[in-house]
Design brief:
Number of domains: 4
Largest sheet: 6 strands, mixed
Distance between the termini: 19 Å
Strand order of the largest sheet: 15-16-14-13-24-23
Number of helices: 12
Amino acid sequence: MKMPFLSLFAALLLAGSLNAELHAQQTPITIAEARQLPLGTTVTLTGWVTVTDEFRGPVFFQDETGGMAWYNAPLMRTGTFDIEVAHGDSLVVTGQLREFGNIPGIPGTGLMQIENPTPQFEIFPEGNRQIEPVTITLAELGTNDFQGQLVRIENVTVDRVGALRPNASYAMIDDFGDGTIRIQSRAPVVNTPAPQPGTTIMGVAAATTGNVQLWPRRAADMGFVFPGDEFSRDETFDIVTWNIEWFGDPERGPDDVDLQFENVKNVIETIGADLYTFQEIANNVSWNQLVNQLEDYGGFLAQYSQTQRVAFLYRLDTITPRGHGILTTGQNSGDWAGRLPFWLRMDATINGETREIWAYGVHAKAFADPTSYQQRVNASQQLKTFLDSSRIDDNVIFFGDLNDRLLVSTWNNQPSPYQNFVEDPHYLPVSLSLEQGQFSSFRTGSMIDHIIVTNQLAEELIVGSERVENVTDFITDYFETTSDHSPVSARFLFQNTTSGQESGGFTGEVPGSVSLLQNYPNPFNPSTNISFELPEAHQVSLTVYSITGQRVASLLSNQTLSAGRHTVQFDASGLASGMYIYTLNLGEGMVLSSTMSLVK
């Protein structure tokens, strides 16, 4: 049941929680009334929050009459985001009506927001109410009648393939018109794949320089959930490679080494991976302090004379080291720029399943010139020759800053120095999909940090879990304060057998293509059957989401199924009536979705 605007305000007054200073300054008015007042007018507005720190400002909120942005630079953009607020919290804020990003001299062409140079606001978690987005078309978005509101647009196709880039605008169309989707640089949608055609997309409606845009807040707003995210971190084996720019060296890395140190800790603890390999560790003291302060981790640092060193960090509760050292067998130190591969032999135990793994962390020769390129070619050949002869039957991870791409070299479009790994079916270049999707791990736009595994581990990779971590989501000015590389990660699920959830199976006729069939019965109550067809054996995930993008069931998770038709039963006994989305994910950007209706 919706609470009328005046009832909400009355409840806040009765609770005695409204700041006396706000009382003295203004009586709250509706957002619709505020939008009719001249710019510069001081107003007090109240509503429920729909955007918190996703953009690092502005915050968006709305009442029963409309939506509004609120911006305060000291609280939202200076240092960290310093407002403790959750989606749906009640907000009361006083400030002046301003317009941001309008065409000079033409009011009404930008984003109307409330600004207050000194903080004059209160947040009421006890008044929390989750706001449902209003469903509109792109034609309606273009009218600017919904500015500041959380909206949903159905059956959208975005003119983009691959990674969504920061501060980028992409054209999109639906059945009624066209529009623009804007990827804010600080939003946790950067470096996620563009939505599949026909996706339902959510976000806040905003306007700048006369162009009305949709600003998604997070990946789920675009119907995207990383495969594997249905599992908690303690159920999977997670690995990361990360070049931390001249870690601990203020002369050549970020100026504030203390801030860099704290940011690095934040990234490690936020991602929570089991195994990290780092490059450019330039200060032994800083490294030792880092390991000591991360109580859940242990670490090893390569001991060679090169200033930039490779290191491993590992979780103490999942990894038992069996040895580590510098690989010299068959390796030329000059080709590796003095940074020979650093190896770690370990037992990794997840959910009672243990794997013996050999990890090789590397930092290849940099620069796009013929000499450096040839050194990378030589080093890659040397390492592969060793692995082929000595580790051919082992679980092997080869990861690090390869300083080159996998498809084609950064130098003169020559063949990649690592094509020997890419073309050998015994190895899986996990991060190749990221390069193909136009993701970048280096600030200048190149995908040069990579993860390659042998087939033994490839069988347990959660396909599609590989990603360039969007650390700008929680580290302000990351590339200036922390590193010029982003972490690259992947997740593995140790299991010996499939779960047996799927029924049906091969029908005797091999389908010509992948297809996701309409569930039957539909509408349904409380259970239905979801069928799909595979032309060949494939690893698949089948997931059910609410219409707002919340995952409600994981029916299959990276299970390898044979060619033919497969049927899975979905029991929705515990769910409310409504529309639901079921998605078949085959990795490598191939995702099929359809909708079904639960009627109770």
